[in-house]
Amino acid sequence: HESLLDLDGIDNPVLSLAEDAEPEEALQPRFCFLKKEDGENFGFLLRQEAGQSGHIVRQVTAGGLAHRRGLQNGDRILEVNGDYVEGMEHFKVNLCVTKCEFFSLQMLCLIAF
């Protein structure tokens, strides 16, 4: 019985392909608390992008509130004001962010690399 694939020299081809990828579980989430003043905005856009899971932070305004509090372009939002949003429809997550009470927003984010 002859194999169609020549795997000579590869101990475990599946492991070899996956070893370079950083497992998502190893990423460390962080909290980001934003409190805006009347007339101020949070200073970022929230997007859902093809090829990426979750809700992604984009267009962080340099010097803006989100930037000053450490939010970065590419961060992924996991939680908004205590509500887990990972599987939530994107328009609902946007509503959670834009309609937050008392002009404060607490988010749990995965840091972009």
TrEMBL record:
Gene3D superfamilies: 2.30.42.10. Keywords: Repeat. SUPFAM superfamilies: PDZ domain-like (SSF50156). SMART domains: PDZ (SM00228). Pfam families: PDZ. The keyword Repeat applies. PANTHER family: NA(+)_H(+) EXCHANGE REGULATORY COFACTOR NHE-RF2, PDZ DOMAIN CONTAINING PROTEIN. This is PDZ domain-containing protein. InterPro entries: NHER (IPR051067), PDZ (IPR001478), PDZ_sf (IPR036034). Residues 30-90 form the PDZ domain. CDD domains: PDZ_NHERF-like. It comes from the Eukaryota. It comes from Anolis carolinensis (Green anole).
